[in-house]
Design a protein that fits this description.
Pfam families: DUF6627 (PF20332). Keywords: Membrane, Signal, Transmembrane, Transmembrane helix. InterPro entries: PA2779-like. This is PA2779 family protein. This protein is mainly alpha-helical. The chain has a domain of about 55 residues. Helix content is about 65%, strand content about 0%. Helix 3 crosses helix 6.
Length: about 130
């Protein structure tokens, strides 16, 4: 039994420390291609033109033509601040969701190790051994 635990821990540590890399051929055009940079106003316009954003704005009774007029009347500083927020805001959810997910993961992990008999953290579990 002791050897199987040692073997399992060695295999798991090797799997956790290995990294997978993917190689592919890169063409000369792809290497020397210059990325297209957008002005902050164009970035805000593209963001408001996305289907999901347009749908939310439509639900809020905001006219798309009014959005275009307001973005066009913004100063460069205002547009760059909004473009920076668009680039730096997390996609999807807040940090609270990530924290809850981490707590649930640790709880499930500890319950499984309690049931397998490796730890004894919770009183409501019984070891398989």
């Amino acid at each position: 039994m002791r050897i199987s635990k040692l073997f399992l821990s060695v295999i798991l540590s090797i799997l956790l420390l290995t990294q997978t890399s993917w190689a592919q051929m890169a063409s000369t055009e792809a290497l020397f291609e210059h990325p297209v940079t957008l002005s902050p106003k164009e970035k805000v316009m593209q963001f408001t033109a996305r289907n999901d954003v347009a749908k939310i704005l439509e639900q809020m009774d905001v006219d798309p033509k009014m959005i275009q007029k307001r973005v066009a009347s913004m100063t460069d500083e205002e547009a760059s601040q909004i473009a920076h927020k668009i680039d730096t805001m997390p996609a999807g959810s807040s940090a609270v969701g990530s924290l809850i997910g981490a707590v649930v993961f640790v709880f499930v992990l500890l319950v499984i190790t309690d049931i397998l008999g490796f730890t004894k953290v919770f009183d409501f579990t019984r070891s398989v051994r």
